[in-house]
């Protein structure tokens, strides 16, 4: 490849990266900031609702779970929030109820793993 071709490819790639990251485009950065603000507000509302639904001990346990498995904690939070919105939760969720819920979710999402071992036949084996 000739040097002018390589330079043209580099320039196009640099422009793509700059456009993707919003460099030089004020409107793009404003949209990104608005999206970030909306996400932050939604997360704050979510945490506020969870603090009203969960007891202090249950919140602590869920926070510890989130440190190890964030996707699992997020799923449990979703289940709790949906149940609260549907009126299935009348009182604060205690740590014991949270443990029960976690066990139920674990039983539902447990994946079976199967290991199969395939032995290679050696060229020198006479078992044919």
Give the CA-based shape: flat
Q: H/E order of the elements?
A: HHHHH
**Helical segment tally?**
5
Query: Low-confidence stretches at least 5 residues in length (pLDDT < 50)?
Result: none
Strand percentage:
under 5%
What percentage of residues falls in helices of 4 or more residues? over 70%
Total domain units: 2
**Cα distance spanning the termini:** 54 Å
Mean pLDDT: 84
Largest sheet: none
Structural class from helices and strands?
mainly alpha
Rounded to the nearest angstrom, the radius of gyration is: 26 Å
Number-wise, the strands total: 0
Report what the structure shows.
The chain has helices at 3-20, 26-53, 56-68, 70-85, 95-109. It is mostly helical. It has two domains: 1-53, no CATH class; 54-105, Helicase, Ruva Protein, domain 3. α3 packs antiparallel against α4 (70-85). The relative contact order is 0.07. It comes from Arachis hypogaea (Peanut). InterPro entries: PDCD5-like, PDCD5-like_sf. Belongs to the PDCD5 family. Residues 18-45 are annotated as: Disordered. This is DNA-binding protein DDB_G0278111-like.
């Amino acid at each position: 490849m000739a040097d002018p071709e390589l330079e043209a490819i580099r320039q196009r790639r640099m422009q793509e990266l700059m456009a993707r990251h919003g460099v030089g485009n004020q409107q793009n950065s404003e949209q990104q900031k608005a999206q970030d603000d909306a996400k932050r507000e939604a997360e704050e509302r979510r945490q506020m609702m969870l603090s009203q639904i969960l007891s202090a001990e249950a919140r602590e346990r869920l926070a510890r779970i989130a440190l190890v498995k964030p996707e699992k904690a997020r799923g449990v939070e979703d289940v709790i929030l949906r149940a609260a919105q549907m009126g299935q939760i009348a009182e604060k969720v205690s740590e014991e109820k949270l443990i029960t819920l976690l066990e139920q979710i674990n039983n539902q999402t447990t994946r079976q793993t199967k290991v199969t071992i395939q032995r290679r036949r050696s060229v020198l084996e006479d078992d044919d």
